[in-house]
Fold this protein.
Amino acid sequence: MTTEHQSFYETPAPAGLTGIKAWLLTHDHKRLGLMYLWAVFFWLILALFLGLALRTELMSIGETIMSAEVYNATFTLHGVIMIFLFVIPAIPAIFGNFFLPIQIGADDVFFPRLNLFSWYLFMIGGFFAVIALFAGDGFPDTGWTFYVPFSVSTESNVSLTVTAAFILGMSSMLTGLNFVTTVHRMRVKGMGWMQIPLFTWSLYATAWVQILATPVVSITFVLIILERFLNIGLFDPDKGGDPLLYQHLFWMYSHPAVYIMILPGMGVISEIIPVFSRKAIFGYKGIVVSSMAIAIAGSLVWAHHMYTSGMSDVSVFVFSLLTFLVAIPTAVKVFSWISTMYKGSILMTPPLLLSLVFIYLFTVGGLTGLVLGAAGPDIHVHDTQFVVSHFHFTMFGGTGFAFFAALHFWWPKMFGIMYNFKRAYIGIILATIGFIFHYIPMFILGMQGMPRRYYDYLPQFETGNFLAGFGGYLVVAGVMMMFINLFLSFREKVEAAADPWGGTTLEWSIPSPPPVHNFIDEPVVKDYPYDFSEVIMRSKKEK
Amino acid sequence: MSEHEVEHQLSYGFLALILAGLIVLTGVTVGVSYIDWGFLNVPIALFVASSKATLVLLFFMHIKYEGLVIKVSFISTMFFLAIMISFTFWDVAFR
Amino acid sequence: MDKPVDKTGIKIGMWIFLYSEIILFGGLFVLYAVYFHMHPESFVEGGLKLDRIFGAINTLVLLVSSFTVAASITAIQRSKKMHAIWFLLFSIGCGCVFLIIKYFEWGAKFAKDLYPNSDTLLDGEPGLNVFFGLYYTITGLHGLHVIIGMVLLLISLILVIKNKVTAERYAMLENSGLYWHLVDLIWIFVFPLFYLVL
């Protein structure tokens, strides 16, 4: 590939914009992806240190570094930022924006200006969250779930924070709208549904959940604000309302939302594993179908968060049963990834190592999810540290590590530079060991009965909490090491080839970083997106 | 895209006919509401409302002339809405 | 940038947006269904307190405006600009009439001491409070959508006058129309659920 083509960094879109305007008014999906990247980096690092502060507080009995009120606000802030500003937008908004159009051979998303608008909504939502932090009576102390009646009666800044979440939900919904339309209308000629790369497929499934589930939480947040200002009483039993309905509405979105969080991560892993196994993905159609199945089945199980809330026994039974169904498509994916590696010619790289860690951590997260999905054991461990550990295994060990994997996988494509492998490996290993140290004690603490969201605890829980805190420092050190390594690559400026890994999807057929319209020549679509025969031939020739 | 889409034109007369149908159905549902049908009250009202909604969707909103994508996704949305309501009743109806 | 405009794609995008609006109201309909199940008598009592003639007139107003919006699209397709302008003006007028009637309706309820946190509702049946709570929430949100729809129609009207919306390119008008029909569609269900469940 000749290098006479200018990358998208040199060519603003729309043409004629210069300086900062070339970024702030851009319609280019690649620039927008990067703008999301920097914003998400900021929120991730902030929330990471908030989480560390929480665990530091818990390392010893009694007040260590903060008061109980600050602790409550801190865990809410940690949750709100992580969920609404990191985990949900991270992979779709950054890598989805950047790579979805390229993977289907398009030059941009279908509604480029709407895409810019979504970014502004994202920034405004974040800005509102910051205001909520400093204005009025301080950040909410409700936890990110904003359960009534506390969220209606607390003095803290709930209204502003749920407004922020409302705006962020809108941003996420519009991104989903854009992706669905793009996938339907902008695939390059010759790309049928079964030639779409799996990352794009997972984003497509995710987008439908974003579109159909997000409005439920939007209206729920509107209702909280109305209750706070007008006191209508729709969730107040004295006035004829039912507080459980709040939980139903909330989880009607927030349970599908966990699939918004994990599906794109699974898509990333489905891209990385075949590339470094030099082998076609095992069960392409199985993975496609399971993505859609997770999206659909995941929308039917929301009340498994409410077993101890006092809802009817029939619904406990029904939702518990349905919850087990979700495990099936999830397991299909894990088996497919492992079968892909079987007898492959494995090339170890940082993205592959991260994917392997993902599979391990996510499997633990998924299996402990079954413990919680089964009504009996859940009643024992409900609202304990066990739950905290479970969802961090899926959200952090799953989506978080998939995010790191995506960063390491596509970094050379996005910036045209390669990072240092050795430092990356050290960071990954440190983070993984720290992760295990951090969260395994929480499983045990939860089984022994230590509740979540508690500021203080009984003396028998001290060892476990100390270990968890220690692990927390290792995790943060490892993650920071990975990030610093990536940032150092800007200084080291080791140029990356167009296809440094030997990938087969369309993004590897164009220069790094890509030119403004992505493709110089009309993209050639393979009959099967994961056909590695050419890559293997090429590497044999080089030898 | 390869297929050239033909825009569908509906004549004023046809649209007016649909409007007439909608007005008649409104009259029916209001009229029927003065009679007590027992437990059938709500199903009748909802049935008439759904018929009206179908007319609006099919002709005013042109869904009859749209491609498969819009038809299927619309039905899926309705299906999801039905699940939201009905699955909540696993709880509410059995308390 | 000589790509032809993909009208189907724009329509798909608009429909997806409408789905999110449907689900937004859907959340409130979940509440309605459950509370109706819990307090059936109060809901009948509440329904009797609403004026079904006003409700029926408002239904007709919206239906007629939906018709004129659909007709304005036919007019644009036939390049009959003046027809389209009059149809749109009439639709926006209908929107105003709807809101004015709504204003008097709400006013009458306020006069009867039926509003959130009024003494009558606080001291009365809890079910009645929920009925009116939902009534104000849903019709309020619906009214907001009527206003948004009118703004969209107004923008389309201006574009028609400026010849920006023509027989070749009328996606903006079509999408505003779809939005307006959705507002009508939601009212078609709100009307029997509140005024006619007796």
Notes: The longest helix of chain B spans residues 68-92. The mean pLDDT of chain B is 89.
